Amino acid sequence: MPMFDKADPGRPGRVALFVTCLVDQFFPQVGEATVEVLERAGVQVAFPEKQTCCGQLLANDGFRKEAAELARRFVEVFEPYEAVVAPSGSCVAMVREFYTELLSGTPWEDRACGVAHRTYELSEFLVRVLEVTDLQARFPHRVTFHPSCHLLRGLGACGCAERLIRSVEGVMFVPLRHPEACCGFGGVFSVKHAPVSEAMLQDKLSDIEATGAEYVASTDVSCLMHMEGALRRRGSQVRTIHLAELLVSR
Amino acid sequence: MTEGPVPFAEVSVRALADGRLQEALRRAMTGLRTKRAEAASELPHFEALRDRAKQIKTHTLLHLDRYLEQLEAQITARGGTIHWAQDAEEACRIVVEICRRYGARRVVKSKSMLTEEIELNRALQQAGVEVMETDLGEFVVQLDGDRPSHLIAPIIHKRREEVARLFAQHLGTPPDAPVELLTQAARAYLREKFLTADVGITGANFLVAETGTVVLVENEGNARLSTTMPRVHIALAGIEKVIPRLGDLGVFLPLLVRSATGQRLSSYVSLITGPGRQEGEGPDAFHLVLVDNRRTEILADGELRESLQCIRCGACLNVCPVYEKVGGHAYGWVYAGPIGAVLTPQLLGLERAAELRYASSLCGACLEVCPVRIDIPRMLVRLRWRTVAQGIVRPSERVAMRLVFRVLASPRLYRIASRLGRIVQRVVFGDRPIQKLPGILRAWTRARDFPPSSPDFPGPVPEAPVTDARAQILSRIRAALRGVPEVALPPAEPFPEGAPYRAAIASSLVERFVQTAEALGARVLRAKSAELPNFLTEILQISGAERAALSEELTGLVDALRGMGFEVGGPEVAHGADVGITGAEFGLAETGTLVVRSGGGRRTASLLPPVHVAVLPEDRLLPDLDALFGQMGGSPLPSAVTLITGPSRTADIEQTLTPGVHGPGKVYIVLLEDTPNRTPSDRPESLKGSP
């Protein structure tokens, strides 16, 4: 039984969009597509204006105190909503896996736990919560899918995104040979150990190109951003696309 | 520690530029990953095993004092000696002192990460003792003055040609010798060392508190030789290696071996309980050195305690995309890969290995395969938190991150900073393309500034002062665990998920045993007792053998074989014999394993000759390890129980599987369809022997 009945979209603002800072700053079209996908799935989406960032950058760089403060803010901003949906496996994994630890021993711990339990990555929210897989999208292209590490291992939701892509009309899905391999982004890792990160990236791009896909889709703009520049430099014809953009294509 | 870690970034760039290394790493890691995945998926209860292992390890660490005391009592009762060492220096001093007491001139060593950690070889050499590494990979590393770069494949970074050059120089082999010849040359060279060494030194994969047993897992046979031939066996182990019960090995052995190499069981598992003198073979003295070396500090650290659960399988290295690119040397010290990035800062101190915390994209592949489910990514993040909290961070980075935080913590500022990403980039990395990496280059210079080493081990070795290391370590453990909630030891009961798998094995013991053993390269023959002399004659003929050594329970066959023209003797002629023939106590159908108990010369007769023939009554076949430990439980163990699974093998040189490196390269198993004149209960040799 889905938590959000499609026939009764319910009271406004039950589902909040956490757009994520990367999408907000660099890929606003992904944010818009996410809202459209959710609305097509029958959900009314609220956008809490005070949101900023989940704090992953700071947490992963070692700045615990600062990350904890951002976590506290996130909990405060999103607590009123019944569900929080983000177009990013990585940010959601941050919320789910680290918030209670970051806020442990503070009055926010339990509240963080509550919010973490109802924060979802877009594809898992569609498939597991709304039980929607067909969004009447059409995308007549050869598409491969790169599951971000956080989607695949952090959330265990790789299957959801793949199901959504496969059910898009016209998509010819061509799987990667090594979908489980990290693309080498890793946030601060890609800067601190850029040569290693690039070498990992080249392997990923070769895998993508070997599929003959026109598009590589992902649930995370961080991976896509990382891959896009390098694909261009390689002179590759493969383009990157976020899952939400793919799902609103017609 | 005389050397600090080398800067990760610097070594990783060199590694990336080395095309042959890249290819070697990719090939080896892909192979190991695939084998692990296949081995894990074969067991329907593999995930349940991981859960159980985790629980056992968690429980044991939270009662570490109790289990160490139990282990000590058991080992002492079996005539062994326990030593406690608070740090590397004390551990080395203890070993040197033991060597001196026995007048040891030569020591053979089997692979042990702990002895690398405490730099035991250096200490022994300083004391005038010759030390030989005998694991093929470690031997190569020692000849070359190099360092191992992988937990279980130490010379993964070396090409065959390099090994050939090295051996040509030291062992006189042709400079273009193939792997097989290199392996045989190492066997011959090291065999001489085994036969003349006074002391054998090993690590320990597990320490069983209940029985006082040191468990050694290997493929080559060098650990068997190290624990069988010299007069003295010294095992060194970190205090975290203890497990409560013998039966827990039924959980840990399959997890370790399947995770490490994807085998069902390694060629050899030795269960060593005390010295072997009462049984007429094996060492006269057994010493176990329990080493703390900052482990009690880790135990006291609720955030990182979990890292003590590591069983050193190497699976996290094999799946790590960063390790695959940079190799083990980039991690700068003894422990490489994801677990190395977690352990090294804890064992050496944060300030000396701070850089390693960033040597991960946090992709989580390590956690996915860790047999004891250590949350390595989380621990790396926690280490990052800790280093920043301790001020180990570039000032510019701190300023930048504070600024980022300021902006992110304020919706107003966040909105104002319209192109936040650009600002972040400009502030943190400068206004240049990230590929140019000025910041990183600065970090390298910083890493090079790590304080240089402490002075060398002093020449004349001082007498080991009487320390209260035991009391100190135990009291540190108790202090570390004060107030930590208990975790119960899970009952040793079978896994429901594994029931159909086990039932399938139990229903066809013989077929399964034959199939698994032959798949490993052993040859299984089925015979009636009366036909045994004929079968053995045939095996000796096929092997081109002239001399055979028989263990004592087979003395009745000596005349028959002599009558066929062979030179036949007891176990005392095992060295120099072409074939060793022994009885086996049990066979395990799941893994094709022979269980050989010490005594009657079986330790040497099954080990020294290039061919081993085992005689095993069919009614001694058991389904698996669990059944075996069920049979063995409750009674004192003999000094050595050896699980033999296929021939001795190595894949150290370019992952080329080569049989017969130290132990027998050929194994024949004669399954007796009948067992005249004796039943299991009145067999003279039973595992439930007297201590």
Helix percent of chain A reads: 40-55%
Share of residues in strands of chain B: 5-15%
The largest contact between protein chains, plus residue counts on each side, is: A-B, 51 and 51 residues
Strand runs of chain B, count = 22
Order of strands, main sheet of chain A, comes to 2-1-3-4
CA-atom Rg of chain B in angstroms: 26 Å
Overall spatial form of chain A: globular
Strand order of the largest sheet of chain B: 8-5-6-9-19-16-15-18
Overall mean pLDDT score of chain A? Answer: 93
Runs of chain A in which pLDDT lies below 50 for 5 or more consecutive residues are 5-13
Gap from first CA to last CA of chain A: 29 Å
Q: Indicate the percent of residues in helices of chain B.
A: 40-55%
Summarize the main sheet of chain B.
8 strands, mixed
Q: Number of helix segments of chain B? A: 30
Radius of gyration of chain A: 18 Å
Structural class computed from helices and strand pairing of chain A: alpha/beta
Q: Can you write the helix and strand succession of chain A as a string? A: EHHEHHEHHEHEHHEHHEHEH
Under CATH, the topology of the domain at 63-297 in chain B is which? Answer: Rossmann fold
Question: What is the structural class of chain B?
Answer: alpha/beta
Throw out a few tags for this protein.
heterodimer; A: 250 residues; alpha/beta; 4-stranded parallel beta sheet; B: 691 residues; Rossmann fold; 6-stranded parallel beta sheet; globular; disordered C terminus
